[in-house]
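Section 4.2 – Deliverable D4.2 (structural model, holo form)

The reporting period included a commitment to supply a predicted holo structure for the target in complex with nicotinamide-adenine-dinucleotide. Inputs used:
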Amino acid sequence: MQLKDNTFLITGAASGLGAATAERIVAAGGRVMVCDLNDSVVAHAESLGESARACRGDVTSAVDMQAAVDAAVALGGEKGMAGVVHCAGVVSVAKLVDREGNPADLDAYARTVQINLVGTFNVMRLAAAAMAGNAPGEDGERGVIINTASVAAFDGQVGQCAYSASKAGVVGMSLPAARELSRHGIRVMAIAPGVFQTPMMSEIPDEAAKALAASVPFPKRLGKPDEFARLAEQIIGNPMLNGEVIRLDGGIRMQ
Ligand SMILES: NC(=O)c1ccc[n+]([C@@H]2O[C@H](COP(=O)([O-])OP(=O)(O)OC[C@H]3O[C@@H](n4cnc5c(N)ncnc54)[C@H](O)[C@@H]3O)[C@@H](O)[C@H]2O)c1
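Output (structure tokens):
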């Protein structure tokens, strides 16, 4: 699947990894429908020029995401939508039992799972249904889906029950989704980032962020959003990448 002259839906595109992926795809000659809950996605689309359009939407809403997929298909013209890079997500930290002995808030747990896991399924099902109708390209390929997990899916830290579970769910869906969608010529991949320099990281205290950066074997720094975008570009372009989760983490194993 080439980026040039193809159209991709990018969720979570107002910020961080999604915003960088949209920039890279446009720089490579592709078109993007950038979608986010945050209104600033409109300004980001404008900064990307004629090849980008924006839509505001919540990834947990069936109506919003159907509208986003429809808009991406329309932007793609005759070729429709070639792929989705799903980056929308939230981080959350809560202990099962806090210092005062209170149990964790159940609604907060469910909210994280709803956005990160159910939202991923929502985007994936609607994008797959749209792309299944595409004309087949080389090898019969009709589309590609890239989801965003996290290394927390594998080595979650204290306080990450909700976040780790939601991302482990994203990891768990990769293979069954890839197997099922193979008959439509649609690939499914996930990227599991380590620690990246995005606005999401600003929710973590400075000291903790420094400690995380220092614990990366090499390079000893946080990842740059464009390094995520470069992997997304490679996945889109390489048809043998399918049904797999790629850690992009400088070798970090969180403790
Ligand atoms: N930054 C990191 O270190 C890191 C590490 C591992 C995984 N990730 C994952 O990467 C993805 C992108 O994170 P980021 O670092 O770019 O964060 P970010 O906060 O910069 O961007 C996330 C975007 O998702 C949007 N969003 C949140 N909830 C939404 C919803 N319900 N509907 C639509 N949009 C919504 C936000 O408005 C925001 O623009 C997330 O899934 C995150 O869990 C990030």
